[in-house]
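Hey, sorry to bother you again with one of my protein questions. There's a protein on my desk that I can't quite get my head around. No rush at all, and the record is pasted right below.
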Amino acid sequence: MSARTGGAGLLARAQEGARTVRWFVRGVTREDRYDRYVDHLRRTHPDEPIPTERDFWREHYVEMGRNPGTRCC
């Protein structure tokens, strides 16, 4: 194995690790809500229009204001 091949393998593993960390952080912080919502719409309501990400978050925050649930403030 040459040094070049080993370096490429190391870079590929580092990139995969970075993608995994990004995926995990987005899940923990719930930043992936829009992606999950779009997947849900495509599976269960294929004829409905998909809102833009901006519209999704706008409606999400409006709904949070209407129904604060268990938030502390």
